[in-house]
Structure formats: structure tokens, C-alpha cells
Amino acid sequence: MNLPWFEQMVKEHCGLMFDGARRKVLERVIQERMTRLAMETLASYAACVQGNPLELEILVSHLTINETYFLREPAAIDLLTERLFPDIMAQPLDGRKIVIISAGCATGEEPYSLAIRLLEKFGAAVFNFTTILGLDVDVRALEIARAGIYGRHSFRGVNPDFKKNHFDRIGPDRFQIREIFRKNVAFHACNLLKKQEIDKLQVRADIVFYRNVSIYFNDPVRRAIFENFATMLNEGGYVIVSSVEVLHHDFGILTLNEQNGVFFFQKHLQLQFQDRRQPAAATGQPAPLQRPGRPGGRSPPTGNRVVGSPPVTAPPAVRQSGVPRPACACAGVVQREEPAKDGRQREKGQGFEQALGLALQSRLQEALPLIRQFVQEHDQMVAGHALLAAILVELQQYEEAKTRCRTILQMAPWHVEARLLLGLVARQEADGPESLAQFTEAAYLDPQCWLAHFYLAEACRLVGNRERAIREYRIAENILKNGGKPNHGLTLFPLSCSAEQLLHLCSSSMTSL
């Protein structure tokens, strides 16, 4: 057994990634456990972990980072007390309690902060109809949370009255949260990646706080956890993430919303966002294909038209109320400038259109064999390869997607979408250097592609290049502010946030750096 085995085992168990500098953390913790257990080889410790579930939990608990404190990111807590909780209270509850979950609660500061703010806002009676749960995979951290005893580090940034009103001093620089909170906040060991552990809780949540937890997860793990949240949530329920994690969780599973600069997701909410698609009546074009279940989402853009693609007549971008409104460019892809000259060309275009239409309706498994057949019959049409690659990425069939993208680049080296897709796959596979290279190339090929600059900033941030990350965030921000390119360059990845929300995300990311 070797270290990569432990990396894979921990990743499969709870989603934690240990690439780059983080690998040294894994090495150190394994060595500490081997010393504690008097084991001399990695193989012997691996056998111990395999045969002893408790040792696996102890190992994971030493690997998690419990960086938290009271009233962290207070704007999100204010959103709970001033908007979300009152909205739920106003609905018929039929005698059930409102359930609030702090997912990845570590040593308990977050769920206790929520309980304190709810008591301050609504009085002690709030606990008669509210359940607050803290969930974490770290059993050692949960022991601290249940005891509710904290030192000075947990109180940074709060005023002295906060401790005076809600804690009892029990020793030098030691404070225990009062019994009313310990009694009304419950803690459970739970691996958020494992649906069976979520199901064991037998709860339906109204609000989930999931902040500053997923930084060491890759996109497939983040998606899986969000799918578990969606299963756990009541209709209309909310998930609140930190500002720097928003774009990483916009999978289309839950609907993204924003209130006073705080982003949150909601289950099946029909938001009244302004539609940024060009109305069909204004252009004289057929109504654009829309992806269901993504209210307020952007229609996928065209990007650069590529050699071999059907000719397009893309409706112009317009602006209303200061919000860029790109027309549905995917619909434009299948709108020919002139009638097909013969039956073979018409049949050729229809095959592509049918696959594209199914893909835009999220019927990817139905679209896949159609576009495969199309590409087999028309292997020189770059547009066919691009649509196939995009579908494969959405289906997480990454190896074939990468092969398709490389095929595209052999035919059209300037193809921006292929670079973006390769960059996204590299991000999901936690390949920092590759994602950096692909997004750099995409930004070079199309300097007005704000998404390329945004993800280039993210890639720079992950490798520790702070100055370049800030510069790329600022470029993306300027493009959006100036109404530059009215799309992000991808065919099948509409985002459900507005230009204003994206601007706020860029600004927040720069501030955090």
C-alpha cells in the first residue's frame, strides 16, 4: 500500500481531496496515527483502516479543518432571521417544526450562532417550533460542540455583550454556552457524501447552512452533496453557501437567488428574475429552446461560429433595466440563413437540430446516441463534435469528452469552447496546471469571454497566484460591467445568476484575496 491508496480511500469515503500542498497534511496525519498505534509500515496501517471503521473515522477527523468562529459572515445569519425564517413561519406548517441544519458544523460555533440570533429575534419560544441540527464527519469536533466550551479564538469579531449574554465563564479564557442552547441544538455524526447517512437522520430540512466546507472537494463531490441536500429539503427549502463558493454549486439542482448581496439556493422556487432571452416577437425568429427547471437561467450562447457548423443568424443582444440580455444563441445555431438546397443537407441539419433540442431539454441520454451517429456520419463538422463533447462533460464521461475536444482542436485550433470544456474537466479532476493552461488559452483566443477570465482567476487562486487571480477577476468584472460579450462561450451550461450577481461574485472573490 502507498499514499495514493489513502488519498483515494479518503476521497471515496468523504470527498476530501489531498492534492498539491495538502498531500503533506495527509502524510503527517498518517505518520502520527502510525506512531500512536506503534505501526511501522503503511501497509500495516492500511490494513488497520480497512478492518476497523473506527480508525477510519479517527483518521478523517484528524484530516478535517475546523476553522470556525461565532457569527462568521453575519450577513448570511441576518438573511436567516430577517427573511428566510419569517417566510417559512408565515406558511402553514401543519404542526411540524421548522428544521435548520448546519452542515459541516465542526465544533458547533455556527449552529449555536443561529440559535442565539433566533432567540434574540423571536424569544425563547422559538425553540418550541424549531429544530437546529449540527452535522459533521469529525466525531472529535462534535464532542467539543456538545460540551459547548470555547476559548478566545472562537469569539474573535464579536462584542463583549455577546459572551456576557449567552455564555458562562468556567475558567481562565473558557466560556460555556448556556444550557438553553445546548438543550436545543443537537449534533450528529454524518458523512454528507453518503445518502444513506443523510436518510438515517429521518429529517426534512427547511434551511441548510453549508458554508466554507467544500473548498477541498472537487465538482463531482460537490454535486453529489448538493443532490443529497435536494433530497433532504422540503419544497421551497433553502441552502446557504459562502460568497466564494456560489459558482461552484450552481449545477442546476437548486435555483440560485440573491438578497442584499447574500447568495442562496432554493428548491423548486419559481423566481421572478427578469428573462434575459430575446423575445421571439422582437426578432422575428422562432422561440428559443429553453432548458426546463432553470427559471431565470441564461440561454446557452453561441460562442464563435466554427468551421463546418450550420450557418447561423444570431439575434442581437439587447439591454433592459441595465441587465445584459443575450439572445438564445443555441437556437440560433439551428436557424439557417437560407433554405436547405437539397434533401441531404436538410436531413443533415435536422439530425444535428434534434440532438441539440434534446440536450437543451436536459434529455442528455436521448441526445447522446443521436449526436454520436451524426458525428460518425459527418466527422468533419466541428459543431457536431462540440455538441457531443458538451453532452459528455455534463454526463461526467470525461475521458471521451477530452478526446472529442482534442479532435476539435486538431480541426480548429482556435476553438474556444473546446478549451473551456477541457478546462472545466481539469477542474473537476483537480488538475490545477491543466485547468490553468486551458483557461489561459481560452482567454487568449477570445479576450472578451468573461467566463474564461473568471475560471482563469479561480485556477490562479488555487495555485496561489494571488496577483494574477485578482487581475483576471477584474477583467471578468470589466467585461460584464461594459456589456461586452453577451455570452459565456459554452453551449450547454446556462448559469442561473444575473450579470449583477456575477459582478458581486467577482467583487467578493477579489475582496477575499
Brief overview, please?
With 513 residues, the protein is of the alpha/beta class. The chain contains 22 helices and 12 strands. The chain starts with a helix and ends with a helix.
Question: Main traits of this protein?
Answer:
globular; alpha/beta; 3-stranded antiparallel beta sheet; 7-stranded mixed beta sheet; 513 residues
Description:
- This protein has 513 residues and is of the alpha/beta class.
- It has a seven-stranded mixed β-sheet with strand order 6-2-1-7-8-10-9. Strands 3-5-4 form a three-stranded antiparallel β-sheet. A two-stranded antiparallel sheet has the order 11-12.
- Strand 11 and strand 12 form a beta hairpin.
Summarize the SSE layout with pairings.
Blueprint: H1 3-14, H2 22-36, H3 42-51, H4 53-63, H5 74-89, E1 98-103, H6 109-122, E2 130-136, H7 139-147, E3 149-150, H8 160-166, E4 167-171, E5 174-177, H9 179-184, E6 185-189, H10 195-201, E7 205-209, H11 219-232, E8 233-240, E9 255-259, E10 262-266, H12 280-283, E11 318-320, E12 323-325, H13 329-333, H14 343-360, H15 364-377, H16 382-394, H17 398-411, H18 416-428, H19 432-445, H20 450-462, H21 466-481, H22 499-512
Parallel strand pairs: 1-2, 1-7, 2-6, 7-8
Antiparallel strand pairs: 3-5, 4-5, 8-10, 9-10, 11-12
Helix pairs in contact: 3-4, 5-6, 14-15, 15-16, 16-17, 16-18, 17-18, 18-19, 19-20, 20-21, 21-22
Report the portion of residues in β strands. 5-15%
Write down how many β-strands occur, each being a DSSP E stretch of 2 or more residues.
Answer: 12
* Alpha carbon gyration radius: 25 Å
What's the number of helices?
22
Q: Low-confidence parts lasting 5 or more residues at pLDDT below 50?
A: 269-347
State the strand order across the main sheet.
6-2-1-7-8-10-9
What is the molecular shape?
A: globular
Structural class: alpha/beta
